[in-house]
Automatic annotation (TrEMBL):
Domain GH10: 36-364
InterPro entries the record matches: GH, GH10, GH10_AS, GH10_dom
Transmembrane regions listed in the UniProt entry: none
Protein name in UniProt: Beta-xylanase
One term of GO molecular function: endo-1,4-beta-xylanase activity
Catalysed reactions listed for this entry: Endohydrolysis of (1->4)-beta-D-xylosidic linkages in xylans
Gene Ontology biological process terms in this record: xylan catabolic process
């Protein structure tokens, strides 16, 4: 092989391996060689929205292929990070909605739905609020002001038919946790802070759908039951809530389909909307692989198919949609979180090629 060819291959490999988060994308404009070739798009195969995550940077950057694929396959978007408290609530009574605005306006221009994520999450509290020196009452007033201002702000961005582009918010994310960072809301607002956040959001917008979002809701732990208890309490004390987000960060074995299905049943029996809100599927938890083998790819294909089939067991009126937590494998948060570059959790490979996982999910939708 000629030296120049070698160099080209090495540079191309480096570009792919360094791509990391979609925010840092180099000028990716690949000519995909779709193997296998899907026979339909995701969004036309489902009677509920199919979403993916975005960042403002990626919606305006040079990676035009991302946007082409997004618009082709998906009809709902969620900000991976740009619409979290840490990104928007920059100081007391001070907000930066610029990236959120860019995302919602992109959705408006392209006929997509926006699911807002996430108003209150202990992992995204801005430092100034974490270390807030004011009284508890002042702390609560800040959080209340933030929720009301943010919800009202995005509700005002309308389609030409006069409907809000942003349909829904994860109002509180991951309340059921032992993470010490979460205690600040309990400590400073009180044990009813979750209920208060939902009430403030509803006061700001009578129509927006309000979700509680959490992980491990499909597993054997007690979380799903805790969420059901919370929803029942909300119903009793008339706290507004419209839906439950099951994050669905799953892997090939966990949770098994029976447990997952039982938990979906438990949650759908609340009568609320159900959102599979952050779907991805780790395939190399044991770090035994350095390339995605055909057998592991097929196992992922089959489980994605079963996830789509399972979602369709939810009554139509309760299907809020399925949102994937990333486009290409190399975009996934799991690569950092699991500290493993050899992880392939999503529907597209690093070059935006369709994976067997995509075909499996599509088969499940069309099943
Ligand atoms: O933007 C900065 C960059 O300027 C800086 O150089 C770099 C150095 O670490 O950090 C960058 O910020 C990172 C950000 O992602 C953007 O890439 C943060 O450190 C990192 O913590 C952040 O991680 C996000 C994580 O939530 C925490 O907010 C992940 O992208 C995002 O996928 C993840 O999503 C969460 C959901 O919101 C809630 N459910 C769980 C899910 C996975 O953790």
């Amino acid at each position: 092989m000629k030296l120049t060819n070698c160099l080209t291959i090495i540079i191309a490999a480096l570009l792919i391996s360094c791509s990391g988060s979609g925010d840092d994308d180099p000028n990716v404009s690949p000519t995909p060689t779709p193997t296998p070739t899907p026979t339909a798009t995701l969004k036309e195969s489902a009677n509920f929205p199919i979403g993916n995550i975005v960042s403002a940077n990626r919606l305006s950057g040079t990676d035009t292929y991302f946007r082409t694929l997004l618009n082709k396959e998906f009809n709902s978007i969620t900000a991976e990070n740009d619409m979290k408290m840490g990104a928007m609530f920059v100081g007391p009574d001070t907000y930066d909605f610029s990236k959120g605005d860019a995302i919602v306006n992109y959705a408006k221009a392209n006929g997509l739905r926006v699911h807002g994520h996430a108003l209150v999450w202990h992992a995204s509290i801005p430092n100034w609020l974490k270390n807030y020196a004011g009284t508890d009452a002042e702390f609560e007033a800040q959080v209340k002001g933030y929720i009301k201002t943010t919800v009202a702000h995005f509700a005002a961005i309308k389609t030409t038919e006069g409907k809000s582009v942003l349909e829904s918010w994860d109002v509180v994310n991951e309340h059921f946790t032992n993470d010490a960072a979460a205690a600040v809301f309990n400590t400073r607002i009180g044990s009813d802070y979750v209920s208060k956040c939902f009430t403030w959001a509803r006061e700001a917008d009578a129509d927006v759908k309000l979700f509680y979002n959490d992980y491990n809701l499909g597993s054997t732990g007690s979380k799903a039951a805790q969420v059901v208890d919370m929803v029942n309490t909300f119903k009793t004390n008339l706290t507004p809530i419209d839906g439950i987000g099951m994050q669905m960060h799953i892997d090939l074995e966990y949770p098994d389909l029976t447990t997952l299905s039982n938990n979906v049943t438990m949650l759908k029996n609340t009568g609320l909307l159900i959102h599979f809100s952050e779907l991805d599927m780790s395939v190399n938890k044991d770090k035994s692989l350095t390339t995605l083998t055909a057998s592991r790819a097929n196992a992922q294909k089959e489980k994605y198919k079963q996830v789509a089939i399972l979602y369709k067991t939810i009554p139509e009126a309760q299907r809020f949609g399925i949102t994937f937590w990333g486009m290409r494998d190399t975009d996934s948060w799991l690569i950092n979180f699991l500290n493993n570059p050899n992880e392939w959790p999503l529907l597209f490979d690093s070059n935006y090629n369709y994976k067997q996982a995509f075909i499996g999910f599509l088969d499940g939708l069309n099943n």
